[in-house]
Structures are given as structure tokens and as C-alpha cells.
Amino acid sequence: MLAEIDDTERSITSGSCSTPRGLLRVNASVPIAHCAITPLLPAFLARFPEIEIDLSLDDGMVDLIENRTDVAIRVGPLQDSGLKARTLLESRYAVVAASSYLKSAPPLRTPADIAPVGARRDEEISKS
To answer: What CA–CA distance (Å, rounded) separates 53 from 30?
Structure first.
């Protein structure tokens, strides 16, 4: 098995592996997959037709080794320092409310205070 790994590493670093092929196991949270991964899949698969994507979605932390995951896309700081990470993008979130609501509602001090209000995500608002 070590010989196979060495051969694979040599073929990748030497450039003799001209066409990427094989199974790529990707794990991501549902929102990331919905917004950032699935829209890009058709173009990616058209560019690399010999790659097969196994996309598993999980909003919790998963054992990447146990699940044989090649790539995991997550939001937030890396918890396991034994893993390699790269920033793909930075995002900002904003909590907004109508001034009429804020005048009549109790003060919002923590994110939990929003739950009883029936907060809506931006994508839900744009559909209404």
C-alpha cells in the first residue's frame, strides 16, 4: 500500500497524471452546499468529466478519517490542528429589523431573543 501511495505522489508531482479522475468525497454543511457547492457542480463536472463527486451533507462535525472524506467545507475556525485548512471566502452576517418592530418589541439582547419573533433568512425574504 505504501508503494501505491508513493507512486501516486510521484505521478501527481511529476505532472504525468494529465487528467484528474476518480472519486472525490466532499463533506459540507447543508447551507454551504446549497449556496456555494451545488451551483458550481455542473461546470466542475463538465470540466473534469472523469471525477465522480460523493457529496455528503451534515451540519455537525464529522470524523473525516472514519468517513473517508477527501475534502470538508466548513464555516468557522479549525478545531483539529492536525488538519490542513484554507480560507475559501469570508462572509458577514447582519441582523436587521424594521424600526416599527423595534419600537414595539422588547429589547433583543441575545440571538435567542430572536427565535420567538419568527426570524426569516434573506433568501426567504427575497421570495416574498
So the answer is: 16
**Cell numbers standing for residue 6:** 508513493
pLDDT, tens digit (0-9, with 9 covering 90-100), for 70-124? 998 888 777 766 778 888 877 777 777 788 877 887 787 887 777 666 555 554 4
**What is the grid cell recorded at 116?**
420567538
Per the CB < 8 A criterion, the answer to whether 114 and 108 are in contact is yes
Calculate ∠ Cα 10-14-17, nearest 5°.
85
What are the tens digits of pLDDT across the range 14-70? 665 678 889 999 999 898 898 889 999 999 999 999 999 999 998 887 888 888 999
Question: What is the phi-psi region of residue 114: left when phi exceeds 0, alpha when psi lies from -120 to 50, beta otherwise?
Answer: alpha
Q: Which of 5, 7, 4, 25 is nearest to 16 (CA)?
A: 7
Q: Give me 12's grid cell.
A: 501527481
pTM of the shown model: 0.60
